[in-house]
Amino acid sequence: MFAKENLLRDVMSALPSSLGRDEWLAALPRALVAGFVKTDKDFQEKGQTSGTTVTFVVVDQWTVTVASVGDSRCILVPHGGDIATLTVDHRLEDNEEERNRVVNSGGEVGRLSIAGGAEIGPLRCWPGGLCLSRSIGDVDVGEFIVPIPHVKQIKLCKTGGRLIIASDGVWDALSNEKADSCCRGLTADLAARQIVKESLRFRGLRDDTTCVVVDLLPPENYVPFTSPPPAKKKGKFKSWLFGWRSKESTAVVANKPGEAGTVEELFEEGSARLAERLGSDLSSGVFNCAICQIHITLADGISVHAGSIFSMTNRTLEGPFLCSSCKLKKDAMEGIQHARDITVM
Prior knowledge:
GO terms for molecular function: protein serine/threonine phosphatase activity. This protein is α+β, with helices and mostly antiparallel strands. The chain has helices at 2-13, 21-44, 96-104, 168-171, 176-181, 188-203, 274-278, 324-333, and strands at 51-52, 54-60, 63-69, 73-78, 84-85, 108-113, 119-126, 136-137, 150-156, 161-166, 211-216, 222-223, 253-254, 263-269, 302-303, 321-322. A four-stranded antiparallel beta sheet has the order 2-3-9-14, with helices on one face. Strands 5-4-10-11 form a four-stranded antiparallel beta sheet. A two-stranded antiparallel sheet has the order 1-8. Strand 2 (54-60) and strand 3 (63-69) form a beta hairpin. The radius of gyration is 23 Å and the shape is globular. The two termini are 17 Å apart.
């Protein structure tokens, strides 16, 4: 509930207000990282022990941007193309890179031990026993369970497609292909209900089983590309296409050759290191913390590229900059030190 009420606002607050559309889309991946970390940090200060996976999807015309932590998943079924997975499952059992990161940051990874020393179940992070390496919340497990999302941005062709966004209760029961096939031909609302129904039929209600389906539809007057007939006489024809058309428009939006079902990847990054995700900034952002957006002076700001808050390594004058509280959060996520002593309620 806390993420639902705050995450979108935190992401939007990290985006400059004066950007054009292309600049806004280019800045979105970095803003998603900042927003996820801020929401997690603010919830951590409440001292509560719950946590959540997140799959956050932004659709801007044909550009789709997905940020995720945990094992909720988003798949894209482009019309006439192959299924594309737009998220990464942050399960310790399946992700060796994440296991190594948790251990290197001070966590322990192992299975649940029962009487006699036998080990059962999936790999978990201890203390706490969480099966995931990334989430928002879960402060009782450890700071090495980070909120830094995997972000992927793609451009879909004008034939459209379907997004299926669901929690692990669905994906533990259904493959990507099964989730697509069981709801094909249904409206988005009915498709989501059918996916949940199929999940419960295969596995029962063992975990959160939630699904949202979003259909990205082509313009109503769209027709697939076909080769034009031979010209009867010499001439020139120009067509200017500017995105979406109104329902009243009589212009025909034609697809380009070879475009049907294709997905263009614009951006993908999954590093759990904040400095790599926020990048470098030699000018802007100096007077605002790159995470919480509070005003800071140049003297108070600490470069995201600096070492521990107590060290003076190189690149200390290279932005973006963090306030002291967010720098402590960064150090804790990387296993340098604890962000704060937290009283669990």
